[in-house]
Structures are given as C-alpha cells and as structure tokens.
Specification:
The chain is mainly beta and 78 residues long. Helices cover 10% and strands 55% of the residues. It has one domain.
Length: 78
C-alpha cells in the first residue's frame, strides 16, 4: 500500500538503474515474473491519505510486459 493516489501522468521520467545495478532483481522476478527490470523516477501530482494534493518525485520498478510496480514517494517538488 503506497499511501497516495497518482493524479496525472508522470513527467520527467528517467531510468535510474537497469539489470544488475538494481539491488532486488531476484525478489522482483519471484514476485512479478521475469523481465528486464528497471528502476525509474519521475514527477507527478499525488493525493496523500490526508487529502492534500502535492507534486512529488516518485520512484518505481518496471519491466516490459509486466508494467510499473511498487511506487514510492521520495520528496516533494515545487
């Protein structure tokens, strides 16, 4: 459970790490399936559990054919 809802498309998307540079590929493959896993980051407006809407930097994992998984809010952006 991430504790927030993403309100718009994620902008300024960048790849942080690919393949062996990611710390958790065995866990990701066991949980979601085999794929070329990437750790990504980007910015979007999110709604927190409190109802407050903020722009934040998000990190997540994604693989082709599997999609985006495990979103994490890293910091607020302005």
């Amino acid at each position: 459970m991430s504790g927030f809802d993403i309100l718009d498309e994620i902008a300024n998307v960048e790849t942080i790490a690919i393949g062996k540079r990611i710390r958790e590929p065995p866990r990701l493959e066991k949980q979601y399936g085999a794929g070329r896993w990437r750790k990504m980051k980007g910015e979007a407006r999110i709604r927190l559990r409190s109802g407050r809407v903020v722009k934040a930097e998000l990190h997540w994992y994604e693989a082709h054919g599997i999609g985006r998984k495990e979103f994490k809010r890293k910091r607020y952006v302005e």
